[in-house]
Design brief:
Chain lengths: 368, 412
C-alpha cells in the first residue's frame, strides 16, 4: 500500500458563518506529515468546522489551508488529498460493504475487478475479511466503523480526517478501536487528524493534541505536555481532574510564586509573568496529593474533613471538605489505603505539583 | 386492529371498519366487477334483435312527432270549443292525451329492454273527446293508429324472439378482439404518451425536488407554499385554460413573439401551439407535476446529507452522486410519483380534450368517453376501460419490479 502522509498548515484560518457567528477565530496550526494529531475540545467549540475547512466542504473566511505545501483555496472536497470519516460514518446503506469501500475507486474509473480486489485488501487491513457482500446494516457498530475507515483509505488519502468516529460505540469497543486506529495509522503512515471530546482518546492515541475552546486554540502539544503542563486554566481543568484553590500573589520567584489562600500560604510553579497582588488560582491534581499526619516542610497543606470515600478498584477516591470547598484526593489502593480515614485529615502536595495561573476561563466540565 | 380497538373502543372501531367495508364494496368492488362483467359481454348490434329494436325505436319517434302535430291542432281548436260551453269534456280529454306522447319517447331511448306497452292504449282514447274535426286531423289519427299496429307486432316479435334466439348479448372476448386498428393504435399511443409525460415530469421534478430538499427548513416551507401549493389550490380546469390562453394562436406566447419581432400579429401570423403534441405534453406535465414532486421530495428529504458529502469527498462527480446515492435512495418516491403521474396522464380527459381540441390525435380516455356516450355502447366502453386499467396495473407492477420496491416501501 503506497500511502504517504502529508502535512497540513493552517495560517490565520477563521470561519464566520453567514449568520455572523464566528465559530473559529483566526488560528495558525501546523500538523506534521504522518502524524496522529488530535483536536480536543468541548462540544460546539468549532472542531467540526475546522475539519470541514481542511476537507474543503467549507471555504475559510480568512486565511489559507495548505496540504503538502499546496494551497487548497478553490479546490473542492473531491479534489483534495483528504478523506473524511463522518461522525455518523455516512456509509451508503444501499450498497454492499465492498461497494462502499470501492466507491472512491469507482469514482476514479477503476475497473470492477480491480476495485473488488482492492476492497478485499482494505477489508483485510481492517480485519473484516469475508464481510464483503453484506450490507452495512448487517454489521455491528465496530465493524461499520472499520468499513468507514477502509472506505476512506481506499482513495489513498494523504490526510485522513476523523470526526469523533468512536463516539457511537460503547466503552469496551471504543478502547479496542483506539488501538486499531492507531495501528492502522502506523501501518499506512497517513496523517490522521482526529477530532474528539474524549481526553482518553486524545491522550492515548495521539502524537500531539490541540486543545480548543470557543473557536480558539488553547494549547498544542504532546499528551504529556497537555496533561502535566497545561498552558491555561481551561486546559488545566478540561483535561483531567483538578483541585482549585483561589489566592493572591504574595511573592514572585524564578519559575515559582508564593500566594496567600484561605487555607494559608502556598507555593507553586508558574508559567506566566505574575505580579504581587494578582488574583490567581492554584491547581493540583487529585492523584498528586496524599493524606499525611506529618507533611514535609516544603509541602502545601490543607486541613479538611473526610466527607466521602469511594473505592474504585485500583484507586480510592477521597473527598474532603475544607471551608465550603471540596477537594479530591486519589490514593493508590496499595495496602495502607485500607486504613481508617475519617474525620480531620491533612491534604499535602508538593510545590512542583501545584500550578499557579492568573484567573481565566475554566472548563465548565472536564472531558470524559 | 387490536390497537384500533384499544384506542377507539369497540363501538367506534366497529363503525369505522363497517363504513370502510361498505365503502370498499359499494364504491370499488361493485362498480369494478360490473365493469369487468360488461367488458366481456358482447352486444350484437348487427343481429336481428338489434334491428328490431332499432325499427321499434324509429317507429316510436315517428309516432311521437305525429302526436305533437295532433297536439298543436288541439291547442288551436280549444278557444272555439270553449265558447260552445263544453269545456268540461274537451279539456280533460286533451289532458288525458298529453302524458302518453311525453312518456313514449323515453323508453325508446333505451333500445335494449323491450318497451312496455303502456303508452299504446291511452293514445287511442282521445279521438272521441275531440270537438272540431278537420280532414288532416283524421288523417293524422289514422297514421298513428297504423304505427301503433306495427309497433305492437314488432314488439310481439321482439319478445318472442328473445326466447328462441336467446339474448343477443353474450359473453365473449369480442369487445377486445374487435377493437379496430385505429383504436388499438390510439391505445398504444396513449400509453406511450403517458410514459413520455411521466418521463418529462421526472426530468423536471427531480432537480426541483432535490433543490427543495437541500434548502434550509424555513426557506423550504416558503418555497413549497408559493411555488407548489398555491398554484394547485386553483381549479384544474382553470389551470388548463390558462395554458390555452398562453398557447392559443392569439395567445400570450405568440404575443410575446410578436413583441420580440419574431412574427407579425397584424398580418395574421402566429404559431398554433395548441393541439400539438408539445402543447398537450406541456400542459399535462404542468397539471400532474405535483404528484411527482412531492413523493420524490419526501424521500430525498430523508437522505442523510452526510452521504452526499461522503460521496463527494471520495471524489465522486455530481452525476455519480445522483446516480449512485441520491436516486437509489429516492427510488420509492420516484416509483410512487411515476405511478401516479402515469395513471393520471393515461386517464386524463380534460387536458387532451381542452388543449387537443380534436385536432390532436385522440387520447384513449376520450375514446372511452365516446364509446360510452356517443356510440352508446357501454359494453365496449367497459372493455376499453378495462384495457386501460389492465395496462395501468401492468405499469405499476413493472415499475415496482424495475425500482425493486415493494408495497411496503411505497406505503412509507
Ligand atoms: N452553518 C452554520 N451556521 C451557523 N453556525 C454554525 C453552523 N455550523 C456550526 N455552527 C456553530 O458553530 C459552532 C461550532 O460548531 P462545530 O464545529 O460543529 O462544533 P464541534 O466542536 O462540536 O464539532 C457551534 O456553536 C455551532 O452552533
Ligand atoms: Mg462536531
Amino acid at each position: 500500500m503506497a500511502m504517504r502522509g502529508q502535512d497540513v498548515v493552517l495560517s490565520q484560518v477563521s470561519m464566520t458563518f453567514p449568520n455572523g457567528f464566528t465559530a473559529v477565530q483566526p488560528m495558525d496550526l501546523t500538523i506534521r506529515a504522518g502524524e496522529f494529531f488530535s483536536i480536543l475540545g468541548p462540544s460546539g467549540c468549532g472542531k467540526t468546522t475546522i475539519l470541514r475547512m481542511i476537507s474543503g466542504f467549507l471555504d475559510t473566511s480568512t486565511g489559507s489551508v495548505r496540504i503538502g505545501g499546496e494551497e487548497m483555496t478553490g479546490i473542492g472536497p473531491n479534489k483534495r488529498p483528504t478523506a473524511l470519516i463522518f461522525q455518523n460514518l455516512a456509509l451508503f446503506p444501499l450498497m454492499t460493504v465492498w461497494e462502499n469501500v470501492a466507491f472512491g475507486l469507482e469514482a476514479r474509473g477503476v475497473a470492477k475487478d480491480a476495485r473488488r480486489r482492492r476492497a478485499e485488501e482494505l477489508l483485510d487491513l481492517v480485519a473484516l475479511k469475508g464481510q464483503e457482500d453484506k450490507k452495512p446494516t448487517e454489521l455491528s457498530g465496530g465493524q461499520r466503523q472499520r468499513v468507514a475507515v477502509a472506505r476512506a483509505l481506499a482513495v489513498e488519502p494523504a490526510v485522513l480526517l476523523l470526526d469523533e468516529p468512536l463516539s457511537a460505540l460503547d466503552l469496551k469497543l471504543r478502547q479496542h478501536m483506539r488501538a486499531e486506529l492507531k495501528a492502522i495509522q502506523r501501518k499506512t503512515g497517513v496523517t490522521f487528524i482526529y477530532i474528539t471530546h474524549d481526553q482518553g482518546e486524545a491522550l492515548t492515541m495521539s502524537d500531539r493534541v490541540a486543545v480548543m475552546n470557543e473557536g480558539r486554540l488553547e494549547q498544542v502539544g504532546t499528551g504529556d505536555e497537555i496533561y502535566n503542563a497545561p498552558a491555561s486554566p481551561f486546559v488545566a481543568t478540561f483535561v483531567g481532574e483538578q483541585n482549585r484553590v483561589p489566592g493572591q500573589v504574595a511573592e514572585v520567584e524564578a519559575g515559582y510564586a508564593r500566594i496567600d489562600t484561605p487555607f494559608g500560604p502556598m507555593r507553586g510553579r508558574r508559567t506566566e509573568a505574575l505580579s504581587v497582588g494578582d488574583q490567581v488560582t492554584l491547581f493540583f491534581r487529585p492523584e498528586r496529593a496524599t493524606i499525611t499526619d506529618q507533611p514535609a516542610d516544603a509541602m502545601n497543606v490543607i486541613d479538611g474533613t473526610v466527607a466521602r470515600r469511594d473505592l474504585e478498584g485500583p484507586f480510592i477516591n477521597l473527598f474532603l471538605k475544607a471551608d465550603d470547598r471540596t477537594f479530591a484526593v486519589h490514593l493508590t489502593n496499595a495496602g495502607d489505603a485500607g486504613r481508617d480515614l475519617d474525620g480531620a485529615q491533612k491534604i499535602a502536595f508538593s510545590c512542583a505539583d501545584a500550578l499557579i495561573m492568573a484567573d481565566g476561563a475554566v472548563a465548565k466540565e472536564a472531558a470524559q | 386492529m387490536t390497537s384500533l380497538i384499544k384506542s377507539y373502543g369497540k363501538g367506534l372501531t366497529g363503525l369505522f371498519v363497517g363504513l370502510t367495508a361498505i365503502w370498499i364494496v359499494l364504491m370499488i368492488l361493485v362498480p369494478t366487477l360490473r365493469m369487468v362483467d360488461r367488458a366481456f359481454i358482447y352486444e350484437d348490434r348487427g343481429g336481428e334483435v338489434a334491428m328490431l329494436a332499432l325499427e321499434i325505436d324509429r317507429l316510436y319517434t315517428e309516432k311521437f312527432s305525429l302526436e305533437q302535430e295532433l297536439l298543436v291542432l288541439d291547442a288551436a281548436e280549444t278557444p272555439s270549443t270553449d265558447s260552445v260551453g263544453v269545456p268540461s269534456v274537451g279539456v280533460p280529454s286533451v289532458g288525458a292525451g298529453l302524458p302518453s306522447p311525453s312518456l313514449t319517447p323515453s323508453p325508446s331511448a333505451a333500445p335494449s329492454p323491450p318497451v312496455p306497452s303502456v303508452g299504446v292504449p291511452s293514445v287511442g282514447v282521445p279521438s272521441p273527446g275531440a270537438g272540431g274535426t278537420p280532414r288532416d286531423r283524421t288523417a293524422l289519427e289514422g297514421r298513428i293508429a297504423t304505427l301503433e299496429g306495427r309497433i305492437a307486432t314488432l314488439e310481439a316479435q321482439e319478445t318472442d324472439g328473445s326466447e328462441i334466439k336467446g339474448v343477443e348479448t353474450s359473453y365473449s372476448l369480442r369487445n377486445f378482439t374487435d377493437m379496430s386498428a385505429i383504436h388499438v393504435e390510439i391505445f398504444l399511443m396513449t400509453l406511450l404518451y403517458a410514459l413520455c409525460v411521466t418521463l418529462l415530469c421526472f426530468v423536471v421534478c427531480y432537480p426541483v425536488a432535490y433543490a427543495a430538499a437541500s434548502m434550509p427548513t424555513a426557506e423550504k416551507l416558503t418555497l413549497m407554499m408559493v411555488g407548489l401549493v398555491i398554484p394547485y389550490a386553483i381549479n384544474e380546469l382553470l389551470r388548463i385554460f390558462s395554458w390555452v390562453m398562453i398557447l392559443e394562436k392569439q395567445g400570450i406566447l405568440n404575443w410575446v413573439f410578436d413583441a420580440v419581432g419574431l412574427i407579425d400579429f397584424e398580418a395574421g401570423e402566429g404559431i398554433r401551439f395548441v393541439a400539438s403534441n408539445g402543447a398537450v405534453f406541456t400542459v399535462m406535465v404542468y397539471a400532474y407535476i405535483l404528484f411527482m414532486v412531492f413523493p420524490i421530495y419526501n424521500t430525498i428529504d430523508t437522505l442523510d446529507r452526510n452521504q452526499i458529502e461522503a460521496a463527494r469527498d471520495l471524489g465522486a462527480s455530481t452525476w455519480r452522486i445522483h446516480f449512485r446515492v441520491v436516486i437509489p435512495h429516492a427510488k420509492p418516491g420516484i416509483a410512487v410519483g411515476s405511478i401516479m403521474t402515469f395513471m393520471l396522464s393515461a386517464g386524463s380527459i380534460a387536458v387532451p380534450e381542452i388543449v387537443g381540441r380534436g385536432l390532436h390525435p385522440d387520447w384513449f380516455s376520450q375514446l372511452i368517453y365516446r364509446r360510452f356516450f356517443e356510440a352508446d355502447s357501454w359494453y365496449e366502453g367497459s372493455a376499453y376501460s378495462l384495457a386501460l386499467l389492465v395496462a395501468c396495473v401492468i405499469f405499476i407492477l413493472a415499475n415496482m419490479a424495475i425500482f425493486k420496491v415493494g408495497i411496503r416501501d411505497i406505503a412509507k
